[in-house]
Amino acid sequence: MIDATPKRLALAVALLAGGCAALEPKLPAADAGIPAQLPVAAAERAVDAEAGEVADIGWRGFFRDPVLQDLIGQALEHNRDLRVAVLNVERARAQYRIRRADRLPSVDATAQMRRGGGDAVPVSEDFSAGFGLAAFELDLFGRVRNLSEAGRQRYFAQVENRQAAQISLVAEVATAYLGLSANRELQQLAERTLRSREQALELDRKRHQAGAISALELAQAETQVESARAEAARIAGVTAQAGNALDLLVGKPVSAGLTAAALDDGATGLLPLPAELPSSVLLRRPDIRAAENTLRAANADIGAARAAFFPSITLTGATETASPELSGLFDAGTRGWSFVPKLNLPIFQGGRLLANLSLSKVDRDIALAGYERAIQAGFRDVADALALTGTLARQRQAQEALVAAAERADTLAAARYRAGRDSQLARLDAERTLFAARQGLVAVRLAEQGNRIALYRVLGGGWKE
């Protein structure tokens, strides 16, 4: 095997002659393989009459319900997950400041008294004071600078992660709030249906006593009442769970006594999307920017690993004054100094430096793949939300028409049953159809609002606040 040491020495001399060298490689370009345009259809651009872009507004401009705005504000203040994200930013900032401090010399001042003696040794005292430069590395090849840059990029990544956590929290609070609103609306519907069926049952009992209906028809009416009672109890339990979920997100109990707006009262205000939305808007998402910062940090680590192959020079210096008496510590003739430059040339490291360089390159490639994966996932999230925007609007219109038709059918079935023209089974079937249609309408409205929130989140909205 050919010894590479002379080549390294020659390169080191050349770099020394040229001053500081930059060994960090060029940042590789990401190739996510996604279309240049996001799939925005005409039906998906007419959500609101206002102008602007989703990613350019804060959550207070997007969520119009004042109760929801207050809940989001409380969650941003009290949510423990977001608090952890904020603390991670502070931790990364401290780590970066430690790395940045390595680029500056450290000067220490010392003062010392030594007192000693023994059985046959007289007691003696020595006093000394001084200050010095402690092992400052001349960053000839950018090793310290690259390590500092890597720390800075990781700090930026934590800042973006914190922003992504905030946007996710805002979306989760809004989703939980709307879910609680939907469950309470379903609970009111179930209780209203239960009261209606109980009133109908009382009439059927009187009709049964009068011989107008059979015992079978009366039993069928009782079955419908108990079915409605069971459904009301089930929805009450789900509503309580939704309230607990909202309390956890906000960080303190808020759901008790909370008056939530109806799903069709404009809780969200998604602005219209432009006719052509380039995929480059995904680069504004905090999670994608965090992945980019991680890639830059890994690339800087390669520069530090390359610099480790070359000589390093550290400077240590000190000036000191010493005296056997404290009063004479700073007298003439007590001062001394030292200057110790040290050259370190790696010759044989057992493959450690090569392995460290290979590890840095693999980490950079992993970060690049993660960056591309984040872009692809972001494109899919936005495409999924856009695909549902138009279909959910049409589904809601169809469900509203279904509810209107079911209400007419229920009214006619009740009138025909009272006139004796239809059986009890036909009336009960119309009631079940109407109840299911109304439940479906609440579910579609919730899905439509939830998809608006999802589109706002996946486009990285809310970073202005």
TrEMBL record:
Kindly state which keywords UniProt assigns to this record, in alphabetical order.
Lipoprotein, Membrane, Palmitate, Transmembrane, Transmembrane beta strand
Localization, per the record, is: Cell outer membrane
Pfam families this protein is in? OEP (PF02321)
* One MF annotation (Gene Ontology) recorded for this entry: efflux transmembrane transporter activity
Predominant localisation class: membrane
Membrane-topology annotation of the record? Lipid-anchor
State the GO CC annotations.
Answer: cell outer membrane
Highest taxon of source: Bacteria
Query: Family, per the entry?
Result: Belongs to the outer membrane factor (OMF) (TC 1.B.17) family.
Q: Which NCBIfam families match?
A: outer_NodT (TIGR01845)
- List the protein's name: AdeC/adeK/oprM family multidrug efflux complex outer membrane factor
Originating organism = Arenimonas maotaiensis
Q: Which gene encodes it?
A: cusC
